[in-house]
Amino acid sequence: MQRRKALGITIFVVCIVAFFVYAYLLMLSEWSPIVLHLSVLMIAGGILGVISWIGYTMATTKSGPSSIISDDEEKK
Q1: Which pTM was predicted?
Q2: What is the mean pLDDT of the chain?
């Protein structure tokens, strides 16, 4: 349990530090335009990646009888 708690605290501290490094790079450094472009690129890539994963899952999942249709047919 102690190892899990230490890992949680480490992740928390690393995320806080990463936020401040990101804020510094975005607001106060000469790398600001590049950081902004890369941030938007990562956000767009993440959103489009999730949408493409949903499409892939829909395209490759075998369709089976739905329980909703089965319940409606049994009532008739």
Answers
A1: 0.67
A2: 90
